[in-house]
Amino acid sequence: MHKRQQNIIKRIQTMGYVSIEDLAGQFNVTPQTIRRDINALEQQGLVKRYHGGAGLSTSVENIGYATRQILCLKEKKTIAKMVAARIPPRASVFINIGTTTEEVARELCKKEGLRVITNNLNVAVILSRNPDIEIFMAGGVVRNKDCGITGHATLDFIRQFRTDFCIIGISGIGKNGELLDFDYREVRVAQAIIENSARVMLVADHTKFGRNAMVHLGALTDINELFTDKKPGEHMVQLLKEAEVQLHLP
Prior knowledge:
Rossmann fold; 3-stranded antiparallel sheet
């Protein structure tokens, strides 16, 4: 490993996520050179390549919230439009924690008569701009880093409802179709949301496929529909078919 690659790792560890353009400018090399460096580092399991950049390769800690807000933002907006097209007016909907679900909330804000139950303060604020949407906010412990709410009180609240749909974000989808995340308390709430929904919609951009995280949330058989921005590999497509999951692509 040469010195530039060592410095790339240090910068990613500091920032959580760095774009290829930023790295190319910092080290005064071409984007193609940075891509080769990132590919080499990823093969060693030291970083994880994402669309347009690279981030931490860890199953223990997620990328920071501010970074996730801008990571694959265009793709998340595309996913959000597809999801919103599937939600009819006056439906009841669970929405959980995540930057992709927050983009979905922005699209759902255009709907009439929705009843939304959420443990995401950001989602509640977004949807509050539409006075025709009724919002039920879960209680519990607020995470300062992303305004997500978890804990026993959250679980008790979620279990009082039964909705038409739920919209779930995820940190990673394993190679064998496992649904993975980083926070055990968040996963418990997501599992309760899935259990109390008639139809489960998973939103995940292409960087989530093959990404590792330490907490098992569930399996593809737990969801009904998957919304993503790029067609997954053939192995994943086959797993989706076997699990009878409806795949939505732009």
